[in-house]
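Case study: DUF1904 domain-containing protein.
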Amino acid sequence: MPFLRFKGFAKQDIEPISQILIEEFSKIAEVAQEKVKLELLSVEQLTNSPLSVEIMMFPREPKQHDAIASAIHGILKKQGFLHVHIFFILLSPTLYYKEGLPLQVGMTK
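Here is what the predicted structure looks like once written out:
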């Protein structure tokens, strides 16, 4: 965790840039590189869907989200991918479970 999920891309497009993606993301998000997970999702388009990067992570400051999106866009742009949609799915530590236990216990009323 966090997860960077690439949808609609070919493996040969993402694999060569995977290390720079991890390095840039971990630096901006202030998380260890070993924790960053890259996934390539195979999708079957039923309509005209854009290439996209789905970032699942715990919330950060808005400027960090902006910097992450900008960095990923820049890396992909250098590879010729100009029209990629990048979006965040923000997770809650109280709703993220490892081995059946939440990472963070919610506050009780």
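For the exam, be able to explain this: The first strand starts at residue 3 and ends at 7.
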